[in-house]
């Protein structure tokens, strides 16, 4: 009887392990995942164009990661992208005239948000909005502008 | 003069006969699948033999395959400044290809050979005939639970392999090589599709489960009932399963990810 129970226990563990692995793959690896870590505080920033900025992309200041992108959504009234940033709770001294840029790591790398602190003495708090933003540089647009300028010079 | 031709003909006919017997056996197994509902305990025993006992080798292999993928992938990707895509590369390789295929090869070696040897010995020692004498159908009693156990265990093992591999890649990529943790997961989550990648990988694994167990069972059931015959069948079971899995993988990949 005890032997049979052992067998059932082992098989049960095996099946449970397999299902956990499947669940992990589904929720943590594939695009089904909707996980957001609940630590830190949220800031909003509006961009005319976010390029290919992804949820969970790093938010950096002076090149050091201080948070992550929490969500990216579209504001249908202003036609802007609203990005919410989750900043580590320990970084509580971001001035309210901070500048938010979307940068690309490397020529074809992942996009991230770089914050440049301003000089204000007022600090941003949970739910506040970063007013000064600059959109992502879209490579095609830059090439287009470059060609347009060249054409203007030669003509 | 005509002897070589006749030999060739005999070879082909024998192969065709074996193929036919194999399919008849599969049909008999599929028709008998209801039997496990009456005796679920037989299925648990086989899931233990095939699934639980393969856990160690599958888990350890998955871990190391994931870690090696991260090392090799990082080396190439960092040359293009795309080391952030390491997570996508590791996961896509694991979930789409390496998880199902390597698991199938490991199970064929670890459990398939054991199945063949077990059933071959049962035949050699006339236990199967004994069952028939007692009016117990050996296909339903012996083969069906083993078949179902193998088919059900395979996708679970492949999922464990892939999950452990992704974690292994994470340890090496993020812990050792300094890839950004958020980039590792976020790029992965952005690029790995649930239906396209995960479900297709699991379907592949299910197909491999059917093929590997079927070949193992047939080789055992169809063995020449001597010790030499059993040993030969065991070898053949592993070799054939490996070849068929790799060939089938190409076909399934072309069908699933072709367009």
Give a brief rundown of this model:
The complex is a heterodimer of chains A (155) and B (259). With 155 residues, chain A is an alpha/beta fold. Chain A has helices at 2-29, 139-154; strands at 41-47, 58-61, 64-75, 80-87, 99-104, 111-116, 129-130, 132-134.
- Give Rg of chain A in angstroms: 23 Å
Distance between the termini of chain A: 93 Å
Helix run count of chain B: 10
- Name the chain pair with the biggest interface and residue counts per chain: A-B, 36 and 41 residues
Tell me the distance between the termini of chain B. Answer: 52 Å
Helix content of chain B: over 70%
Largest sheet of chain A: 8 strands, mixed
Largest beta sheet of chain A: what is the strand line-up?
7-1-4-3-2-6-5-8
**Element string of chain A (H = helix, E = strand):** HEEEEEEEEH
Percent of residues in helices of chain A comes to: 25-40%
Which spans of chain B of ≥5 residues are poorly predicted at pLDDT below 50? none
Oligomer: heterodimer
Going by helix content, strand content and strand pairing, the class of chain A is: alpha/beta
Low-confidence stretches of chain A: none
Largest sheet of chain B: none
In total, how many beta strands of chain A? 8
Q: Any idea what the shape of chain A is?
A: elongated
Give the percentage of residues in beta strands of chain B: under 5%
Number of domains of chain B: 1
Protein name (chain A): Outer membrane lipid asymmetry maintenance protein MlaD
Transmembrane segments (chain A): 7-27
Domain Mce/MlaD (chain A): 40-118
Keywords (chain A): Membrane, Transmembrane, Transmembrane helix
Question: What does this 3D model show about the protein?
Answer:
Chain A: It comes from Allochromatium palmeri. Chain A: This is Outer membrane lipid asymmetry maintenance protein MlaD. The complex is a heterodimer of chains A (155) and B (259). By secondary structure, chain A is of the alpha/beta class. Chain A has helices at 2-29, 139-154; strands at residues 41-47, 58-61, 64-75, 80-87, 99-104, 111-116, 129-130, 132-134. In chain A, a hairpin with a 6-residue loop joins strand 5 and strand 6 (111-116). The longest helix of chain A is centred in the N-terminal third of the chain and has 28 residues, at 2-29. The radius of gyration of chain A is 23 Å and the shape is elongated. Chain B has 259 residues and is mainly α. Chain B has one domain. Chain B is 86% helix and 0% strand. In chain B, helix 1 (3-31) crosses helix 7, helix 5 packs across helix 8 and helix 5 (86-124) packs parallel to helix 9 (194-221). Chain B starts with a helix and ends with a helix.
